[in-house]
Amino acid sequence: MYKDKVAVIMSVYKSDNPIDFNVAVNSIIRQTLKCDIFIYQDGPVSRELKSAINRFRKFNNIFIFVSEENKGLAYALNYLIDSCLLNNYQYIARMDSDDISHKNRMSIQVNFLEDNSDIHVVGSYCKEFGADCSLAEKKLPITHNDLLNFSITRCPFIHPSVMFRTSIFYNGLRYPVNTKYTEDMAFWFILLDLGYKFENIPETLIDYRMTENTVLRRRGFDKALSEVFIRFKYMIKFKKITVKNVSFIIGRFVFHLLPPNAIKYLYKKMR
Prior knowledge:
By secondary structure, the chain is of the alpha/beta class. It has one domain (6-210): Spore Coat Polysaccharide Biosynthesis Protein SpsA, Chain A, CATH 3.90.550. Helices cover 40% and strands 19% of the residues. It has ten helices and eight strands. The protein has helices at 18-29, 47-54, 73-85, 105-115, 144-151, 183-193, 212-216, 221-237, 243-255, 260-269; strands spanning 6-12, 35-42, 62-67, 91-94, 100-101, 121-129, 163-165, 198-209. Helix 1 (18-29) links the parallel strand 1 (6-12) and strand 2 (35-42). Helix 6 (183-193) runs parallel beside helix 8 (221-237). The protein is globular. The relative contact order is 0.14. The mean pLDDT is 92.
């Protein structure tokens, strides 16, 4: 491993599909910019998935870590970040175990960060696929100020599309592990509060896999309560208290408690 290379971090666990996992990893292997890949097996997995993981052990730029028990996504990502920090990577990119990175994704994001030294985290648009509610192109705000305002009621990034400057992790910053299913959103707020700058590249750089479970994972009281608490906390802290923001946050709380069919309908019609 050499200075200035990109490390890509990915967690895989028992519910992942071996074929989708294989496609996801190969989309990183085939990048126009060579990357090292750090994979964390989060607890026991099926024989088929274990076999798919082990097939990548022959690559000298893929590093696999195995936990005997499921620790959760935030723990897995923090473990991989710690592993990356033992080496001289300039950038750390996220990737999910069932999505597909376009072959020039890493080179575009690295070039962007090289040209914009004030930006610390960069994401992109995505193409959704695999479910009725999938969008041909999911767009998010681009500039930092727009993302700051947007973050009060919506997530500013498509999580598996982001690339970080490794330097933001040097002082011990990590994904919070004490939240209910909102580790990425909580982390974005922490970074914004500390003055780190965000931007999205207005290009589709990943294909984001949607399933029925993707939508239904957003359902539940614990999820709703965790999200509304975090959003209200930072709405107040960032002095973004408006009728519109309060209404949106309350609306998101209600959304998480709706029956599955209602959630699917609204997710398709109101994004």
